[in-house]
Fold this sequence. Notes:
By secondary structure, the chain is α/β, with parallel strands linked by helices. The chain has 2 domains: about 5-55, no CATH class; about 60-180, D-Maltodextrin-Binding Protein, domain 2. The protein has 6 helices and 7 strands. The protein has helices spanning about 5-10, 35-55, 75-85, 105-115, 120-130, 145-155, and strands at about 60-65, 90, 95, 95-100, 140, 155-160, 175-180. The strands form 2 sheets. Strands 5-4-6-1-7 form a 5-stranded mixed β-sheet. The protein has a two-stranded antiparallel ribbon with strand order 2-3. A hairpin with a 2-residue loop joins strand 2 and strand 3. The longest helix has 19 residues, at about 35-55.
Amino acid sequence: xxxxxxxxxxxxxxxxxxxxxxxxxxxxxxxxxxxxxxxxxxxxxxxxxxxxxxxxxxxxxxxxxxxxxxxxxxxxxxxxxxxxxxxxxxxxxxxxxxxxxxxxxxxxxxxxxxxxxxxxxxxxxxxxxxxxxxxxxxxxxxxxxxxxxxxxxxxxxxxxxxxxxxxxxxxxxxxxxxxxx
Length: 181
């Protein structure tokens, strides 16, 4: 970490009460100390179990494509290869994947389930690929509506959107439905 960054971080930390030069900066924890710490840990575990066990919290993600793409379905292995740039053609047509510019719950769920990477690992992968192989990363969409617009207008585009975003949309075709936790 550079000195400038370190100095900026140190300014954000509160100063311990003390006299003169003996005052030192200390790290403040969001977790309570003592008996409250057990309650805090129990609450975290309970929240994790509820989120894991409740099927209503599962996300339905739909992989969509332009109607001109001559396939009716894609496997998750195909999607992984497309989003990692290992496969650029499907049924003799050039494919251009669409991803979101910012990481959100849909992006994170899709990348972890289909690609097998976290959003930060996915970005790091593409930074390396750009410099090593010259391949280009997936096209970036700013929102769900933007992703649907890109997929609808680009003949080889493939993207992913939340299932509820497709209500009343007929400009794209569904290739695969995923339910991810």
